[in-house]
């Protein structure tokens, strides 16, 4: 389907987001990191985690006090190959950037490195952090827990987060293997995106207290906030379509995100206190970096991984299908399509951008959709 939304130049959007973050108290260097993480989502076509979340997930949380604009990064434990960081309720993206810088250097020296962050906040797309490793010829692995929204198999109560488990690996192609997805069928950001676009959520992704699936995106978001609906793990409802596998992966991410640092988990991450008032989210993230040079070498790794991916794409296709994709390919094509055009913004985002500009007095900005 041809894109009908207007585009905003990448540099314009980047500069605007940095200036807005700074107005909200985020130091300029940190604001540049945060803006780049958000825009990387849109570059890859992952709009659920890009500009759509700029205001509701970051700015609004800074405003209501559940996200601190200045990030105090405390390294509470470090060895030659491991790091534990307390983010002190600051910007999860800023703490994660520091973590990856440290782990990349350790993996270059020792072959492998791992770290975990606690008392953190939303860190954007997990694939941003794993790609930091890939750009250095390394393998990146990351995951994060989140506010409870996913029910266990045979359950209807939201207990764990969407909990992505992400891998990025170098190849000899123009793009890496980049597997970046939640361990549930549908993540919160996608449903928020559907609601903004006035679309229903596909059936079979969300369950209500009666064990029935829901499709009304607005009602889903309302009921989920009230704890009366839950996302389903990969595989869906029950065991017949292997929902227990997604449930298991979600649990793995929850354990690694919380237990390695001894941080909070599940219902303690819901962002509200016992009286229903907003409180800090206290999220946890984990990161691992592997250096192929300490095995059979980077060139061997890149060629073998490339051969595997090319073999998959060249395999026999199902009737009516003319193409097989590998992870990261669609994201690469989204960037090729958008790099000279900019980020597409729908009506609701346009209104948010104009309101932010006018409220904050950033009169130097003029958006193309205003012409």
Give a verbal description of the structure.
- It contains eleven helices and eleven strands.
- With 371 residues, it is of the alpha+beta class.
- Helix 6 crosses helix 7.
Write the layout of secondary structure elements.
Elements lengths: L6 E2 L1 H14 L4 H16 L10 H11 L9 E5 L3 E5 L5 H19 L1 E9 L5 H9 L4 E6 L20 E5 L7 E5 L6 H10 L8 E3 L8 H9 L3 E3 L11 H17 L23 E8 L7 H16 L15 H10 L4 E2 L2 H14 L11
Helix pairs in contact: 1-2, 4-5, 6-7
What is this structure, in a nutshell?
The protein has 371 residues and is an alpha+beta fold. Helix content is 39%, strand content 14%.
List keywords for this structure.
39% helix; 371 residues; alpha+beta; seven-stranded mixed β-sheet
| Rg, alpha carbons | 20 Å
> In one word, what is the shape?
globular
Tally the helices: what do you get?
11
Order of helices and strands: EHHHEEHEHEEEHEHEHEHHEH
Low-confidence stretches: none
Strand order of the largest sheet: 2-3-4-10-5-6-7
What does the largest sheet look like? 7 strands, mixed
Q: What structural class should be given to the helix and strand makeup?
A: alpha+beta
Please count the beta strands (DSSP E, at least 2 residues each). 11
Assign a percent range to the helix content. Answer: 25-40%
End-to-end span in angstroms? 24 Å
Task: Quote the average pLDDT.
Answer: 96
Q: From the structure provided, what is the oligomeric state, counting identical versus distinct chains?
A: single chain
């Amino acid at each position: 389907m041809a894109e009908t939304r207007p585009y905003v130049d990448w540099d314009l959007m980047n500069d605007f987001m940095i200036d807005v973050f700074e107005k909200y108290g985020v130091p300029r260097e940190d604001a540049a990191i945060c803006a780049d993480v958000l825009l990387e989502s849109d570059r890859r076509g992952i709009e659920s985690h890009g500009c759509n979340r700029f205001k509701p997930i970051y700015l609004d949380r800074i405003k209501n006090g559940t996200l601190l604009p200045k990030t105090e990064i405390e390294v509470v434990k470090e060895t030659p190959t491991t790091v534990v960081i307390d983010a002190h309720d600051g910007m999860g993206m800023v703490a994660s950037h520091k973590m990856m810088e440290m782990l990349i250097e350790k993996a270059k020296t020792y072959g492998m490195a791992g770290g975990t962050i606690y008392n953190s906040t939303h860190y954007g797309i997990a694939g941003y952090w794993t790609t930091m490793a890939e750009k250095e010829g390394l393998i990146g692995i990351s995951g994060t827990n989140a506010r409870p929204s996913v029910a266990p198999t045979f359950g209807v109560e939201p207990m764990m987060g969407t909990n992505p488990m992400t891998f990025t690996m170098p190849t000899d192609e123009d793009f890496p293997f980049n597997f970046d997805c939640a361990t549930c069928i549908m993540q919160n950001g996608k449903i928020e995106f559907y609601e903004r676009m006035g679309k229903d959520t596909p059936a079979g992704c969300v369950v209500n207290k009666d064990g029935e699936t829901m499709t009304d995106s607005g009602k889903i978001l309302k009921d989920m906030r009230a704890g009366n609906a839950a996302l389903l793990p990969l595989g869906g409802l029950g065991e017949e379509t292997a929902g227990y596998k997604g449930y298991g992966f979600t649990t793995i991410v929850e354990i690694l995100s919380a237990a390695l640092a001894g941080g909070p988990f599940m219902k303690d991450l819901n962002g509200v206190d016992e009286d229903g008032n907003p409180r800090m989210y206290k999220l946890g993230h984990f990161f691992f970096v592997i250096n192929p040079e300490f095995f059979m070498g980077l060139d061997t790794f890149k060629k073998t991984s490339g051969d595997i991916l090319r073999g998959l794409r060249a395999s026999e296709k199902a009737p009516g299908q003319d193409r097989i994709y590998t992870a990261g390919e669609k994201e690469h094509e989204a960037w090729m399509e958008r790099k000279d055009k900019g980020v597409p913004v729908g009506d609701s985002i346009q209104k948010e951008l104009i309101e932010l500009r006018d409220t904050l007095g950033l009169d130097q900005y003029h958006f193309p959709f205003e012409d």
